[in-house]
Amino acid sequence: MDKEERSKKRLQLWSRAVVHFSLCFAIGIFGALLPLAATGAPSIDIIRASFRPTVAAAPPLPDIDLLLIVTVTRPDDNDDGMSQEASLTRLGHTLRLVPPPLLWIVVGAENRTATARAVHALRGTGLMFRHLTYAAENFTGPGDEIEYQRNVALSHIQLHRLPGVVHFAGASSVYDLRFFQQLKRTRI
Fold this sequence. Notes:
The chain is of the alpha/beta class.
């Protein structure tokens, strides 16, 4: 084969490919527009208008009535952790009666046995919870540790952008359910 015959064959190959591509393209366009014609779309202008970006008003933020209950725990003096576990269980049973959504945040010093007991008590309640720990430090005053624990919880809430009403509940406190219903109705 000489050079001229090879170039003719290449030209024929390319022309066949172009014809094939054009035919497939036309069938594709026809297949895409056929359902629009069957539905009675009045004109192509309506189709073009549907692809134009429209500026829509931002949807209103949902009214989230999440209740964030923060409980700070102190290690027991007798080191058995039973009274802390009992207090968490009692508060947990009260919080189970509060209608969801509710997130219980429990903050305690990092101690293997106390943490394990607290998590066991929290899991037994069936509530959605987060257990936060911190490295135990020497605090000067009796209220310094509680203040530090509350700041740990608030940092967590801010970091994860948890929306809702925050209540600092004492583990040994007794609550009426109407109190939590009133908290859920609180709005900014």
